[in-house]
Amino acid sequence: MFLLSLVAVLVAAALYLRNVGSRERGLPPGPPTFPIIGNLHILPTEFIQYKFTEWARQYGGIYSLKMGASTTIVLTSPKLVKELLENQNASTADRPASHLVETVCGRFHLSFARYGALWRTQRRAAHAILGTQAVTRLFPIQRAEAAQSLHDILASPESFYAHLERYAHSVIMSAFYGTRAPRCESPEITAFFEMIHDWSALNEPGAVPPVDLFPILKFVPGWLATWKRTAMKVRKLQRQVYFGLLDRAAERIGMGERNGSGIEDVLERQDEFRLHREMIGYLGGTLMEAGSETTSSYLKTLILCMIAYPDVQRRAQDEMDRVVGVDRIPTLAHLPHLCYIQALILETHRFRPTLPLLLPHATTATEKCGGYVVPSGSTVFVNLWGIFQDPDLYDDPEKFEPERYLLTENGAKPGVDADGLKPNLSFGVGRRSCPGIHLAENSININVMNLIWAFDFQPAMDAAGNPVQPDMFAYHKGLGTAPLPFKCRITPRSAEKADIIRREFLDAEEVFVKFESGLGEEDKEFLRKSRRQG
Description:
By secondary structure, the protein is α+β, with helices and mostly antiparallel strands. The protein has helices at residues 2-19, 48-59, 78-86, 99-105, 117-130, 132-155, 160-177, 187-203, 226-254, 262-268, 270-273, 277-308, 310-323, 339-351, 384-388, 404-407, 437-454, 495-507, 509-512, 521-533; strands spanning 62-67, 70-75, 361-362, 367-369, 372-374, 379-382, 455-461, 467-468, 488-492. The protein is globular and about 70 Å long.
């Protein structure tokens, strides 16, 4: 009897395993699967957006991958993104379960949090401090930081890469924590960007072993698993930066020093929002991650494109000079009159999106999309890279051409059905869209205008005096991407503009001082020296 029972169990197990990894009836098509592992063996471990796009050209705007017994849906069609993630947003707002995320930051990271009461609590607080009215209140510090960014690039153009990172991070620090980072070497800057590069690399699909599919991998010792050591390093740095800033802010507020930053509202309304310390720390951390890396990455790409496409640069500068003039710095009030600059901003988002794959969604109910079944518990990727490089949507998508946004609102070919192709698609879709979109758009808009108004961007020269054209595909790997450090020549467009930049920087001191409480001695000395020099 025992033998018969054992045989029955083995047969049942064999029948079950025979189907594991196979594509179920009704799923979208996709690459051929292998028993048990499905498509895991053909999943790239870096720059996965290129493979996702290759498969999209073969299998269509919606296809499926099998990750063991789990299903992944890849959307490379704006129409299908709208159909599934916007029209069915209540059942597609979850995130996939992630042992990596749990290891690093528990359940409290707003971007990766599972959909539910905890996420809604943090999201409500984020909206309260980053809504239109709050962002308007914070704009003076954004503009002041942008003025320093111009001044820093004028003083040391070879370090523009670091200056853009300082700007983006200092704005978010000021907006949420009420404390700025005045120099590239400020401790919060160096620790944050060391952390974010590792965190982004860990979160790239395929970069970490499939722990969630094969839980036994959790027990591999750290000395054999590089990703585990990196994850603990990231956790340590996150807590050092996020909770260190939180404690400094609480101390400053306790001393009666208020400057209108978001943390003041959060701590004042902590009981109303039902937030505890862990939630507040990771709320601020999430906003810093989302704002710092993406904004600085975007501006680095802008400069890269100005070097590679000098005709675009000249046309943008001509429009800037015609609308703004040469004797004053641009403001957001000028943007509605700068049609080509607006097109340039949108084309930079399209040409090299900072998140080639939006953060994955997960379904909590079985849905239909494109005539196919999307099972409950599926992981859903939006292949933004594939959408923005689709030749059926765009003429010459591999070229940087702002003019396409002067022809149509969404940049697509005239007459093409581009339903769902929104200009702000880069900021996410459905209920998981970026809560800091207004702050981010202000940062991008004012800095694009400033950089075009202020500087000429040209290729670096080699030893023989020949221009070195930049590699437009030399980007960091990871969930979020940015150009690898590159060299270029940045020069002020006139002596008069250089004088205006110095004056604007000195005038910004009145705004800065409200955000400089508690700075370290090295930061204070840097400020004294830079303000004396102007």
